[in-house]
Every structure is written in C-alpha cells, then in structure tokens.
Amino acid sequence: MRMQSEPAYRRLVNPYVPMRVFSDDQVAAIHAAALTILENQGMKVLSRGARERLRVDGAVHDEAAQTVRLDRALVGHCLGTAPREITLYAASSEHDVPLSGRAVAFGPSSGAPNVSDLQRGRRAGTLADYEDGVRLCQSYDVVHLLGAFTEPQDVPPPLRQLAMMHAQLRLADKIPHTFCRGAAQINDCFELVRRAFGLSREQFRERPCTYTIINTNSPLVLDAPMADGIVEFALAGQVQMITPFTLSGAMAPVTLAGALTLAHAETLFGLSLAQVARPGAPVVYGSFTSNVDMKSGSPAFGTPEYVKAQFGAGQMARFLGLPWRSSNATGSNIPDAQGAYESQMSLWGALLGGSNFVLHAAGWMESGLTSSFEKFILDVEQLQMLAEVLQPLGGDGNGISHAYRPLLAGESPGDDADATLRANRVYRRALADYQTPARDPAVLEALDDYMRRRTDAGGSPPQT
Amino acid sequence: MRMQSEPAYRRLVNPYVPMRVFSDDQVAAIHAAALTILENQGMKVLSRGARERLRVDGAVHDEAAQTVRLDRALVGHCLGTAPREITLYAASSEHDVPLSGRAVAFGPSSGAPNVSDLQRGRRAGTLADYEDGVRLCQSYDVVHLLGAFTEPQDVPPPLRQLAMMHAQLRLADKIPHTFCRGAAQINDCFELVRRAFGLSREQFRERPCTYTIINTNSPLVLDAPMADGIVEFALAGQVQMITPFTLSGAMAPVTLAGALTLAHAETLFGLSLAQVARPGAPVVYGSFTSNVDMKSGSPAFGTPEYVKAQFGAGQMARFLGLPWRSSNATGSNIPDAQGAYESQMSLWGALLGGSNFVLHAAGWMESGLTSSFEKFILDVEQLQMLAEVLQPLGGDGNGISHAYRPLLAGESPGDDADATLRANRVYRRALADYQTPARDPAVLEALDDYMRRRTDAGGSPPQT
C-alpha cells in the first residue's frame, strides 16, 4: 500500500504516445511563419544591454524602435547550440529532475499575489505563507520542483527574493526557483544557491540547479527584467523556461495556429538571445496559450481550446527537440468542482501533449491571482492519480496488484464532508507534521551570513 | 458563439489514437485465457430457458450445476455472426446514434435508487424525478441516449417499467432505455416503443431503437433476468450491452489482466448466447472494471486503476471489432471537487481508451447509489468540453475561431458561488424552460391506450 511519501513518484516517465492537433506540414509551416516574423518584425527589447548582446551576424537593429530582427540562419544556428538534454540537480540527488525525452515533473502554483484557505480566507501573501508553500512542496514526492507559491508582501521588495530563496534552501532540498527581477537580485539568489549546494562559481555554471520563468510581453516585446534575466541565466548556465503568455482573442490571433505561431516566434527569439549570450545555455520551451471568455472578456483556462493549444505547443517543442513546459490552470475563483475539472482538463492536456514540466501543477486558482492551500491538496491528489496512470503495468499486465491510496477519498471513511474541507484538514496536518530536511550547520550559517550582509546593505531593488 | 443547444455535439467522432496498456501479445493471451475459462468452467446460467437455447454443438451442459461450457469453435462462430456496425435509430433521425468505429455517444446515470439535489437532499427516487431526468437528457445535445436516471419507487414494480418507458416516449425523442427484469416487462417496453416509432413487429426486429444493459454476476454467473434478457433482446434485434461488473480484489482477480480476462470471458458467453438465439443480434462489448479501496473495502471509481482498466478493456473490444461501452463513475458521496476529478479521470479514460458509448456520463454519484441533479449539470459541462476537444481543428489549424461557452464558468460573471450551487440554478432553469418535443397526437393516444390496458391488467411483475 502506498503512503503519502511515495518515492515512485519522484521520477515520472510518460509511456503514452503524445496527442497531435497539427499535421507534420502544419508544424513545419508554423515554424516557418515564426521565422518570417522574426526576420521581418523581430522583437522589441527594452534592455539596452540585452540588445547589445545581440550585435551579431544575422541580427538587424533599429535602436530608435528598440527592435532587433533575426534572420533564419542565426535562429537556426542558435537552435543548434541549445541542449536537448537538461537535468536540474538538487541538493539531494534523489530530487534531481530530468526534463527531457519522456520525463515528467511538476512544480507548484507560482507568482500569485494572494493566498487563500478556509480558515483565513483570501488575503495578500506573506513570508509565512510562502514558507508553508515550500513545506507543502517538500512534503509530496509528486511535486518535484519548488516555486513562488505566493509573493510575500510583508517583506520589502529589495529583500523579498533573498527571503524567498533563503526559505527554499533552509526548509527544503528540492530544486529552488529564482525570479527574474534584475541582475542584482538574480545574482543574490545564485550566491545563496552556490552556498547551499557547496559549489564554486565555475562548478555552478556547469551544473543547472535553479530555474526561472521568462515571460515575454506578447505581442513581440521583451521587457528589461526578462531580457536581462535571459542573459544572466544563460551566463550562469541555469535553466530558463521561456514562456510567452498568449491569449487568443486578446494579445494573440484568434486561431490556434496563429496564437501558437506568435508564441513560437517569441520563444525562438528568447532562445536565440540565450544562445548568443552563452552557446549551450539550457532553455526549456514554455507555452501558455489559452482563450478569453466570450462573455466576460477575461482569460479562461482548462478550456477545450486550452487543451488543444497544449497538444499543439507540445508538437512545436518536439519539432525543435526541446523540453516542454506547460501549466495546470483554472479560472475558478474557489477550490470547487469547477476548479477540479478545469485543472483535470489542463493536466490531461499537459500529459497527453507530452509535457516535461508542468508549472502551477498544485494550488493555482483564480486565473493565477491566488494560491489556495486546499487547491494544493486537491491538485496533489490528482497529480498522484495521474502519476499512477503513468506507471507501467509490468510485463505480465499485473497492474492492480497495488491500488492507489487516495489522500482525500480515503481521508475519513464514512465522512461526507466536501472534498475541499477534507483538503483543508490534510494540508494543516501536513504542515503540523512537517520535518525540515537535515542540513549541515555550516551551510545554514553560510546562508545566514550572506543574508545578514545583504540585509545590512539594504538588499537589491527589483528591476522594473 | 455556441449555445446550450449545440447540434455539433449530436455526432461525436474521436480523432485521437486510443491508448494501450497491453501489447498485442498480451491482448491475444487474455482472449485465449478467456476462451479456456469458457471451455473448462463455462458459466452458471440461472434460467432454464436460456440454457435450453444453448443446446447446440460445442456447448456442454451440466444441468445439476446449471452450468454451460462453450468450446472455442462455438465462441468463434458466434463472434463471426455478431455485427461490427451498430446504429440505434431514434424517433427523430437527428438523434440516431452510431455506436461503431470512432463514434462516441453519452448516456445518463442509470439505475440509482436515490436522487439528490441541494433543495431536497438525498431521497428515494420518484416518477417525477425520473421524468425530470428524461427532460434533462433531452435538453442537452451532448447526452445522446436516455437512461434509467432513477428507480421511481412510488410506482409499483409491475407498472414501473411501463411508466418509465412511457415517460421516455412522451417527454423526449432520443433513444429510450429498457430494463431487463423478465420477458413480460421487456415485451411491454418493446410494444410501447413500436407504437411510438410506428413500427410493425417485423420492422422493429430489423431496426435497433432501444437498448439495455446486461450485467453478469461475476464470477461466471448469469442470473435469470439477465439470461432471459439476452435472449429477448437478441430475438427482437434490439441492442444489448453486455457489461460484467468486476472489482479487482473483490469478485475478480487483483491484477488488471486477471480482472479483464474474467470480464472478457463473461462478455463472450453473453454474446454467444445472443448469437445462438439469433445470429446477427446487435451486441455491444461492455466493461466496468475497477478496484476496491484498500482502506474501506468499498468500490473505488475514477481511480488510476479504473483508467488503466478502461484502456485495457478498449483494447479487448477492438480486438473483437465490437463497439465498446464504458462508464463515468465516481465514489464521491456529494457533487464536490472529488466527484469532479474522479469523473474527469473516468471520462478521459473512456475517451482515450476509444469508448463508443459512455453510460452514467451525467449525474452518477455515490458509487451509483444516487443520481444527482447538480452532478448531471457539472458532468454535462465536462462532456461539452470534451466534445469540443474531439472537434477537428479544420485544415488550416483554425481552432480557436470560436471559443467554448461554458454552462457554469460563464453562468454569472463576477459570481463566486460554488460551482455546485451554480449547477443547481442551471438545472432548475433547464427544467423550467423545458419544451416537450412535438408528437403526433395519435401516437400519444396509442401509448396511453396501451398503458391503460396494461395498467388495468395489473402490469407485469418483475422477474427476480
């Protein structure tokens, strides 16, 4: 019988043939159309430093418009140096995360300004909430990477990233997440990670052990923190997941092919900047394409259009041979049945599309405005169920010799409490039972020392 | 923008390649093992009449044990006469339902003794509840067949099937469902259907227009109403879906291959009885294999094991070339997040497994003990979303030119009500707005007349 801690979930491999919405010809046509966009329009890059990096053959600059156009030979060359095999190395090797081939990994809801639970309601996130998010990620083997569960708004912005990274490294031993809000903050985070992992600068550059999300500003704009983040992550050899957020019918064309063409062009641009900064920089192909609700005009997630966009984006990533990141998203404002079925739609879309990494896999709610503690548990239950669906039957078809033991359905037999209420009990018990992984006191002291010095210096203001 | 009534959902075709859990060799081995079971053990058949039908070459009787063993040549011959193409013909041709190839159809929760809604709670079903279930099925194009939404316990058993069939034929024009509780009741239902569809007995026998579910009594028992039902449906040329209900770890082996081997053997036996009774009788391959919860010992649904069992059962049905029926099931006692994600697991398992007909697709709850009005709407939303996922993109990849308009997410913008509460509003509005399809008054009078005569005669007691 399987227990809450389930090492079998630490390395997931997807045995199913990915779904397709495009023919091979359509995939090639989308790629060609994206190259044409990059040649004819290029992207507006709001960082002068990043633009200067792109002073290379095949790049055409218009400094007044802040645009850089890339010819297809340059993009092709950059695709040639991007690695196909990427692994994130954790402090503890049992938490290393391969991101290539048929590997599947999950990360938590990230970037939400708010958190929510049944006792305390919806409120602005704090460092205590963030730390609870880290503890929950560490508690379940099916959550492979840490993330930015909420924005701790009780910590001043110049110290916030330091506090978040310090919490990840103190409280857990899974892969930590770094935000891109300027070179100074990024390098603060890198210094903490180096100390936690005991790596020299040279060793760190050769060993991916933290990751970030690069969001373009669709259509065809790369803002300064993101452009600089691409460069900093490339130079440091750390993993960046370049993820255009395109809503068809809003900032992107209304057709699936059109929206994915735009997203593909933006990802190729970011990848090219990374490869020019450092050939061989590890880049993950990210996608986050959905539609707007036709009635309210607000973003909709977990929709049929979202599922098909995932199938299509997965085809584009495989066309390039790159690892592919997608998301578990819902527009539901509360952790109810709608949140559950929209998340299931998103998760099946991701897995059937062949996703290697699913961000926002646990806890995402309200179109990303809120991370919910109950939703985290509801999602972990679903992730564990899907992890079981991915497990091979074995050569003799012997697939029901163990039965999955649910977190919630079996939480309290005979109990008719709403699943959300049961999830509340489960998350509070997980936090009450939490045991911080053992750490070398010298490492903890080195982290504390760095934190003290940077705090005394006032931290680093975020780049905007 | 799509509306509640969506003719595009009336004919669904699954464009995706079905998932597999077994190799071709494993599929062949399961089939061979099932044939060996039928040859060596056979099935216990609790109807003498049905056993007498099986006095044919290749059948070995043990009348004391009430068992009939079938050799593989006989089963092979019967597989040869079973049709691969089956269509159910409705009163209105727009509601005809093809059940073969890549066709997909959905039917409602069936057979529940209880119904539930937020205002009235959980209670024994009545004829009024049953009629509301028929109206809801008729209201949504994504529900293709009628069913036995609840058991109307305010109608005496000898008149209950008459009342249910009369309600289906008066209130709707989709495919009606018939229960198997003895030849007398079945033939009452057939007589009503003939009158509603204006068919002579001969025409009726050549035109499948009602369906039933045959459940075996695993392991390897066929009770009298089911055995006689197989014969009656075969003789009448109406559609029977032979569905062993096997819970691995309870009445079936704990391995997936073992549980599916038993189910396959039982389905082959039922199919053989039908083909001996009338070669060419339309038989659908049904499966309902799940596992028991290891903690409580109660049946569990929508589990990872259930999904894999669906993938495997779909492979077995395709191996025989028969249409395949599966189910949308959940163990949740209320229409909450657990009910939603277990149903999504079940539905994806069915569609990815290549199911042609999904029974219990809307409204099933509490392991089948209750049909819920709110769950019906929550499920219809999910069925519509999945129906959209099945829609082709079109040759130009133009897939987001319309966006799915949700029943619930868009029900009331800015409304944070729980999805279950919103589903309650939607189902009550659907019933308030319900318009009975127009019917020839002479037909209605013929139905009333038959009902009066049978009611005056006391109806037909159910066979037990």
Helix-strand layout with pairing:
The structure is a homodimer of 464-residue chains.
Chain A: E1 12-13, H1 24-40, E2 43-45, H2 48-53, E3 59-62, E4 67-70, H3 72-81, E5 87-88, E6 97-98, E7 103-108, E8 114-117, E9 121-124, H4 127-139, H5 157-171, H6 183-197, H7 201-205, E10 211-214, E11 221-222, H8 224-236, E12 239-242, E13 245-248, H9 256-277, E14 283-286, E15 288-292, E16 299-300, H10 304-320, E17 324-327, H11 337-352, E18 357-362, E19 364-365, E20 370-372, H12 373-390, H13 419-432, H14 441-456
Parallel strand pairs in A: 2-11, 7-18, 8-20, 10-12, 12-14, 13-15, 14-17, 17-18
Antiparallel strand pairs in A: 1-7, 2-4, 3-4, 5-6, 8-9, 15-16, 19-20
Provide a brief overview of the structure.
2 copies of one chain form a homodimer. The first copy, chain A, has 464 residues and is α/β, with parallel strands linked by helices. Chain A has helices spanning 24-40, 48-53, 72-81, 127-139, 157-171, 183-197, 201-205, 224-236, 256-277, 304-320, 337-352, 373-390, 419-432, 441-456; strands at residues 12-13, 43-45, 59-62, 67-70, 87-88, 97-98, 103-108, 114-117, 121-124, 211-214, 221-222, 239-242, 245-248, 283-286, 288-292, 299-300, 324-327, 357-362, 364-365, 370-372.
